[in-house]
Amino acid sequence: MRVSRKALLIAAAVVAVACEARADGSSEFQLKAGTNLDVVEQNCAACHGLEYIEMNSPFLDQKGWGAEVTKMVNAFGAPIDAVDQQKIIDYLSSNYGKK
Question: What are the pLDDT digits (tens) for 26-51?
Fold first, then answer.
């Protein structure tokens, strides 16, 4: 699969922004407030940084976020029950979904 130069530049910019420390000097990443944010923080942060969500948001719509959550559970063994999986997908789609 060939990746365009533009896609690589966008991805690099997203990574740079996501990794940059906040203006107050802290490096803790904060997700957007929203319904089921607590479920996302409890489940997703157990395995990876939450900035991963924002880094992938330009590329994923609801279907893409569903596939991503399914991959985390089935391929990586994330212990997330079905109810919480749907809450995570709903939160990600609403707050970080590609429009």
Answer: 457 899 999 999 999 999 999 999 99
Whole-angstrom distance, CA of residue 79 vs CA of residue 6: 36
pTM over 0.90: no
Q: How many CB atoms lie within 10 A of CB 33?
A: 7
> Would you say 29 and 18 are in contact if contact means Cβ atoms under 8 Å apart?
yes
For domain 5-96, give its CATH number from 3.10.450.50, 2.40.70.10, 1.10.760.10, 1.10.1660.10.
1.10.760.10
SS3 62: helix
